[in-house]
What we know:
By secondary structure, the protein is mostly helical.
Amino acid sequence: MQGIHVALLQDAVQEGVLGAAGRGAEWFIGLFQAGAETFVGFVTGIIPLLIVLLTAFYALTNLVGEQRIQRVSRFAAGNLLTRYTLLPLLAVFFLTNPMAYTFGTFLEERYKPAFYDSAVSFVHPPLGLFPHVNAAELFVWLGVAEGIRQQNLPLGPLAIRYLIAGLIVIFIRGIVTERITVFLARRQGVDL
């Protein structure tokens, strides 16, 4: 930012105030032109991809049936391992962010805070494989992906590693949050 001001001051000295104002105006409109180019890239690239992915997953949900998905969700809520890995994965995959948190309705009250912690922590790791899960924050993955592409490295293995690391992290967070919830409930005299 300071370099821009120095350049404008140098222009003012060399070209006069009108020349510097003209270059400042060119820079200002150039900023918005760059934003418009990025927007057009999204409109012609990622937005159609996301619409097709969302349509496909909603169609899959309708084909499989909402009742079956709920049955699988209740099964996944049944034990510690699947409650904080499989259930958040299914929730984020099928319902996307922020609707994924509604899968907590299949859980007992004492597990809901831990499920929420797991689900909210899992909306970024699968973006490399499933960009529909959190389309509003796809820029996080795209930034990392661009750096990997510039190094001429494949994106697939990184996307898989992100997913696996995410599953490990949400499992740990789910267990820790569940224990904290039980501890605080006992401390407050709340029966879970």
